[in-house]
Design goal:
Shape: globular
Number of helices: 12
Structural class: alpha+beta
Radius of gyration: 18 Å
Strand order of the largest sheet: 2-3-1-6-7
Largest sheet: 5 strands, mixed
Number of domains: 1
Order of helices and strands: HHHEHEHHHEHEEHEEHHH
Distance between the termini: 30 Å
C-alpha cells in the first residue's frame, strides 16, 4: 500500500464516520466537517505538477524563480469544495467498498496536485470562489472550477523544466460529475439538510 493509498483510506473512513454521525448537517460542525478533506490533503503534502502559469527564465533556479515572481502553489481542485461534492455522493466515494476507495484515491491524488501561479493570480483565483457558512450560500462562485483559470486569463501552463506549453484544458482534470453538481449547488438546486440528523449513508448500510 502506497502513502497515497493510506491517506485516501484513512480520509475516507474519517469522512464516512462524520457523515454517519450527522456532523455535516450540524451548523456548528459544518465548517470543521467540510474541512476534513482539506486537512488530509495538506497533511499529505504538495504534489507538484511541475506546471506554471508563466515561463521560468532559462538558467534560473526554481528557488530564485519562485522568489522573484512571487510564485504560489494552487490546488486546481479546491479540497474544501471537493469535500462537499463527495459528501453529497457517499455511494461513490465514502462507502466501504473497493470501488469507492478507488474513486476516493483518484480524487485525493488530483486534489493534492498543484499548479504554480503568481501571487496576484492566486489572489484573483480566490476571488472566484463562493462562500458557504453553516451550510448556507453567502456568496456564489463566479464560475465553475474547470473555468476558473480561463476566467482570470490563464489558458496555458508551462513545464517548469522544459518550458513546453500545454493547454489548461489538457492538463487540469475535474470530474464531469463534480462540474454538473457544482452548478446545481450554486444555483441552490441541491441543499444539505442543516439539522442534527442521520447522514446520507444510512440507506447504504441498511
Amino acid at each position: 500500500m502506497t502513502r497515497l493509498d493510506r491517506f485516501a483510506k484513512r480520509t475516507q473512513r474519517i469522512m464516512r464516520d462524520a457523515l454517519l454521525n450527522g456532523d455535516l448537517y450540524n451548523p456548528h460542525l459544518f465548517r470543521t466537517t467540510k474541512r476534513l478533506f482539506y486537512h488530509a490533503v495538506t497533511e499529505y503534502g504538495i504534489k507538484s505538477s511541475g506546471l506554471c502559469s508563466i515561463q521560468k527564465p532559462v538558467g534560473m533556479t526554481k528557488k530564485n524563480f519562485r522568489a522573484k515572481y512571487d510564485i504560489d502553489d494552487d490546488h486546481y481542485n479546491p479540497p474544501e469544495f471537493t469535500s462537499l461534492y463527495m459528501f453529497a455522493h457517499p455511494e461513490k466515494y465514502l462507502i466501504d467498498t473497493p470501488e469507492a476507495l478507488k474513486n476516493m484515491t483518484k480524487i485525493f491524488d488530483h486534489s493534492a496536485t498543484t499548479r504554480m501561479v503568481t501571487g496576484t493570480q492566486n489572489e484573483n483565483l480566490s476571488k472566484t470562489s463562493g462562500k458557504i457558512e453553516k451550510g448556507i450560500i453567502i456568496k456564489k462562485a463566479l464560475c465553475p472550477t474547470n473555468e476558473k483559470y480561463s476566467f482570470i486569463g490563464i489558458d496555458v501552463l508551462y513545464n517548469i523544466k522544459t518550458g513546453q506549453p500545454i493547454s489548461v484544458k489538457d492538463c487540469c482534470y475535474v470530474p464531469n460529475t463534480l462540474i454538473e453538481w457544482e452548478k446545481k449547488f450554486w444555483n441552490e438546486e441541491f441543499k444539505f439538510p442543516m439539522k442534527e440528523t442521520t447522514g446520507l449513508l444510512e440507506e447504504f448500510f441498511s
